[in-house]
């Protein structure tokens, strides 16, 4: 029944650190370091982690907006990291992105209609009146009106801008959308609207999402599967229910304990992590989380824990389990 | 100035498209409603017409000497007075527009095209190309602009055309730097990434996204540079590399009148005013152009 739409294998993305006048490479920022997962067709894969954990880079590498250092990206069982520019151009129709900040994601000098129609024009799918009608129909399905076509982005609020960004992503009728923190920049009341819009669109157009977020509450609402990233690696992966009921990795537990609840009487034990995420140019040896882990053991300091499957679909990289 | 009311709600796609067209034509409307920009444009148009009609407008020949009437202050016979050879200053300014305006405009056009292109390439592609271009620009910047222009015009030979080319080339590094900085700022924005994700090619990304959004500082640099270009050309004329002596050119009038600044200030004042007015008009017009191109600054009468 479940069919894979996107699969990544051993994906790595290192950014060279260049210093000095000769731009010599003195090191690498290991933004994404050897991760593998797959996204099922019609489902939402929630990728969570704190800032700097490599979530956004993963999304961009999947879309080939950035070249992976190594590893493979498969879309419909076809490897896309080796496509030439023409094949890639055709592939782009299938995969789109929704950005976090709707203010920098829209060109201030293009009208809403021009922005949404751009993909259609770039792929020569329509022209003239037909182009405009197609753009307007996408706008309407995203809760915008036809008269917004010739407005400029600065005339809109954050929530409406995010609708524009979503409409732009959907104009090419993609099957896969990377939603890179699509609601983090919005007010909570608007977040709900945008989340519901994304869910409705998913049903209507049978979309598959890679939903990147640091908000576990939102991820719980939208995802079918959840993957937790820490410092460029995947530390835990599980179906949603399983993940929220039995988180196994200490990092996942800490993240979940930070989710606010609506019950004021609920006594929750907050696990406060100390310090900051380490420098991804020089990740700690052994388990990358050992510098902040409340249950750190000797083995964690020098042995890298491997991702092991502990239950169907549930894998975790930790020496404790 | 009549404006159509912007409809609050257009029910059909056709109406939306019609409104879209109207808004695109708003660019001219926006430019027109900016009074200062309009004044600037008027002054520029005035100087252009003066330059074109110089032989009919000038009361005297710009080169006819009248030594007995030298260094006369402004009066009924010579509205703006005469210079050290008794030549009518008004006539010289009128004919000078034929030389000074093109020098200013063409040299800036050369600098804008060359520097803008180089800066954009450096900013967009980055890496080695950026390093190569910007280091060459640094070498050019290490020499004072005027010295660089002297070197170029010496190599090309004296003459007004060569002066334009020389001044234009010597201004290229400034434009390249401004353009590169502007492009760098825009290149990393998410809408550029979004355009690429939706399949837009390099040319489309550059011309639809990066260029329009990095234009503002380049326009300002352009309007500011015209003055510098006219003065650089004047300096070249002064040392005998540009407009040759009898030719009426604002900058060279300024330089040659310098010797009489104390006794006959009008000899330098009026060509100086002509340059000042041109530059002011250009700046006002440039600002208006920049604002009219930016939809965020548009005003609508709702």
Q: Write the CATH homologous superfamily of the domain at 106-295 in chain B.
A: MetI-like
> What's the total number of strands of chain A?
12
**Element-by-element helix/strand order of chain B:** HHHHHHHHHHHH
Pattern of helices and strands of chain A: EEEHEEHEHHHEHEHEEHHHEE
β-strand percent of chain B reads under 5%
Shape estimate of chain B: globular
Low-pLDDT stretches of chain A:
none
Task: Please report the distance between the alpha carbons of the first and last residues of chain B.
Answer: 14 Å
Total count of helical runs of at least 4 residues of chain A: 10
- Helix share, percent of chain A: 25-40%
- The computed structural class of chain B is mainly alpha
CATH architecture assignment of the domain at 106-295 in chain B? Orthogonal Bundle
* Estimated radius of gyration of chain B: 23 Å
The CATH class of the domain at 106-295 in chain B: Mainly Alpha
Largest sheet properties of chain B: none
- By DSSP (H or I, 4+ residues per run), the number of helices of chain B equals 12
């Amino acid at each position: 029944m479940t069919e894979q739409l996107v699969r990544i294998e051993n994906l790595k993305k290192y950014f060279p650190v260049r210093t000095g006048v000769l731009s010599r490479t003195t090191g690498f920022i290991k933004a994404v370091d050897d991760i593998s997962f797959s996204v099922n067709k019609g489902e939402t894969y929630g990728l969570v982690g704190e800032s700097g954990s490599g979530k956004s880079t993963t999304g961009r590498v999947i879309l080939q907006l950035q070249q992976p250092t190594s590893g493979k990206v498969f879309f419909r069982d076809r490897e896309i990291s080796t496509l030439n520019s023409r094949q890639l151009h055709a592939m782009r129709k299938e995969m789109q992105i929704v950005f976090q900040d709707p203010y920098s994601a829209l060109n201030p000098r293009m009208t809403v209609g021009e922005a949404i129609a751009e993909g259609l024009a770039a792929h020569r799918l329509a022209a003239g009146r037909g182009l405009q009608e197609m753009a307007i129909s996408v706008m309407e399905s995203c809760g915008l009106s036809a008269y917004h076509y010739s407005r400029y982005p600065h005339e809109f609020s954050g929530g409406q801008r995010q609708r524009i960004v979503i409409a732009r992503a959907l104009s090419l009728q993609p099957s896969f959308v990377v939603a890179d923190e699509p609601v983090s920049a919005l007010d909570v009341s608007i977040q709900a609207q945008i989340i519901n819009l994304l869910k409705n669109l998913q049903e209507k157009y049978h979309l598959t999402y890679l939903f990147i977020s640091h908000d576990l509450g939102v991820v719980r609402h939208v995802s079918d599967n959840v993957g937790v990233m820490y410092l460029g690696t995947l530390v835990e992966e599980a179906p949603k229910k399983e993940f929220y009921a039995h988180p196994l990795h200490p990092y996942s537990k800490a993240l979940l304990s930070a989710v606010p609840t609506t019950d004021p009487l609920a006594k929750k034990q907050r696990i406060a992590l100390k310090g900051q995420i380490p420098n991804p140019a020089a990740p700690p040896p052994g388990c990358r989380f050992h510098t902040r882990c409340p249950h750190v053991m000797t083995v964690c300091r020098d042995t890298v824990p491997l991702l092991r499957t502990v239950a169907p679909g549930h894998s975790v990289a930790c020496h404790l389990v | 100035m009549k404006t159509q009311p912007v409809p609050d709600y257009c029910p059909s796609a056709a109406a939306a498209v019609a409104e879209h067209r109207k808004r695109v034509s708003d660019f001219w409307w926006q430019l027109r409603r900016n009074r200062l920009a309009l004044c600037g444009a008027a002054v520029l148009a005035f100087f252009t017409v003066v330059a074109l009609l110089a032989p009919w407008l000038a009361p005297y020949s710009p080169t006819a000497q009248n030594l007995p009437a030298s260094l006369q202050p402004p009066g009924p016979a010579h509205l703006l007075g005469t210079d050290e050879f008794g030549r009518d200053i008004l006539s010289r300014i009128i004919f000078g527009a034929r030389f000074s305006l093109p020098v200013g405009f063409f040299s800036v056009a050369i600098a804008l095209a060359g520097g803008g292109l180089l800066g954009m390439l450096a900013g967009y592609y980055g890496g080695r190309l950026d390093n190569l271009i910007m280091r060459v620009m640094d070498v050019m910047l290490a020499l004072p602009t005027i010295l660089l222009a002297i070197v170029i015009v010496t190599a090309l030979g004296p003459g007004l055309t060569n002066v334009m080319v020389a001044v234009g080339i010597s201004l290229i590094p400034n434009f390249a730097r401004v353009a590169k900085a502007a492009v760098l700022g825009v290149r990393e924005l998410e809408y550029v990434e979004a355009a690429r994700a939706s399949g837009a090619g390099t040319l489309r990304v550059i011309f639809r996204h990066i260029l329009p959004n990095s234009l503002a500082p380049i326009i300002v640099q352009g309007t500011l540079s015209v003055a510098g270009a006219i003065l650089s050309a004047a300096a070249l004329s002064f040392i005998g590399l540009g407009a040759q002596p009898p030719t009426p050119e604002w900058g060279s009038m300024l330089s040659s009148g310098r010797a009489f600044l104390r006794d006959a200030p009008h000899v330098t004042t009026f060509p100086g005013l002509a340059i000042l007015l041109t530059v002011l008009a250009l700046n006002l017009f440039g600002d208006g152009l920049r604002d009219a191109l930016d939809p965020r600054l548009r005003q609508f009468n709702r």
